[in-house]
Structures are given as C-alpha cells and as structure tokens.
C-alpha cells in the first residue's frame, strides 16, 4: 500500500533526513550513498529514481560557497604562505563535502520522487 503523496517540502525534508520521501519511516539508504531498491516500510521503489550526478554538483556548489567565499575574508588566507593555506583548505573542502553529500542526495531523492522523475525499466 503506497502512502498518500507528500508535499514537495515534506518529501525533501524526509530525504534530507535520509528517510523514505514517501512515508518518512523507512531508510532511503543502505550504505553511505547507495539508495535502497525499495522502502522496507511502504515498498516504494526508491531504486528507480536516478540521483547520481545532481547531488554531487549541488554539494560542490554549496560547499564551495560555504568554505571558499568566507576564506577570502579571513585574515590568515592573506598572511600565511600558500603551502599552508592550500592543504588546509583542500582538507576542509574534502571533509565537508563527504559529510554533506549523503544529506543532499537524500533531499535530491525527495525532490525527484515528488516530481515522479523515475527511470524506465
């Protein structure tokens, strides 16, 4: 039995929590970035919704603006040598990207689930 269609905001919010966008109860991921084939609670076929490249681009855009923009305003960026600033910045970008990506992918899953943009098999 499929649950009643959630609103766009509800579906995205459930996805951001890494839950099924349809019911909000089941897990949407079985691993770090691997989406389950179907929700274990409502049997919604989540594996049919392609969200491979979009979340990566959105994550890079968000993390780039969160880290790089403010970095130019900080004093240490201009005072320390590039041999110190660049490795610190790259590590911060990498870690923040790895932390944010699963949540963005969940939100993206909620977005495309709500709009019914699934693969044809």
Overall number of structural domains? 1
The coarse silhouette is elongated
What is the CA-based Rg, rounded?
A: 18 Å
| Strand percentage | under 5%
Structure summary, number of beta strands: 0
- Main beta-sheet strand count, sense and barrel state: none
Give the end-to-end Cα distance, rounded to a whole number of Å.
21 Å
Organism: Asticcacaulis aquaticus
Protein name: DUF983 domain-containing protein
Keywords: Membrane, Transmembrane, Transmembrane helix
Pfam families: DUF983
Overview of the structural elements:
The protein is mainly α and 121 residues long. The chain has 4 helices and no strands. It is elongated, with a radius of gyration of 18 Å. The two termini are 21 Å apart. The mean pLDDT is 90.
Quick take:
The chain has 4 helices and no strands.
Please describe the structure with a list of short key phrases separated by commas or semicolons:
mainly alpha, 4 helices, 56% helix, 121 residues
Summarize the topology:
Blueprint: H1 8-16, H2 54-73, H3 75-79, H4 82-115
Helix pairs in contact: 1-4, 2-4
């Amino acid at each position: 039995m499929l649950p009643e269609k959630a609103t766009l905001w509800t579906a995205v919010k459930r996805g951001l929590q890494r839950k099924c966008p349809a019911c909000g109860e089941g897990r949407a991921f079985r691993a770090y970035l691997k989406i389950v084939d179907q929700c274990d609670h409502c049997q919604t076929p989540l594996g049919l919704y392609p969200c491979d490249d979009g979340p990566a681009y959105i994550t890079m855009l968000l993390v780039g603006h969160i880290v790089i923009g403010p970095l130019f305003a900080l004093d240490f960026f201009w005072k320390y040598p590039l041999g110190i600033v660049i490795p610190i910045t790259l590590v911060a970008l990498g870690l923040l990207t790895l932390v944010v990506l699963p949540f963005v992918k969940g939100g993206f899953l909620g977005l495309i689930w709500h709009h019914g943009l699934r693969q044809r098999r």
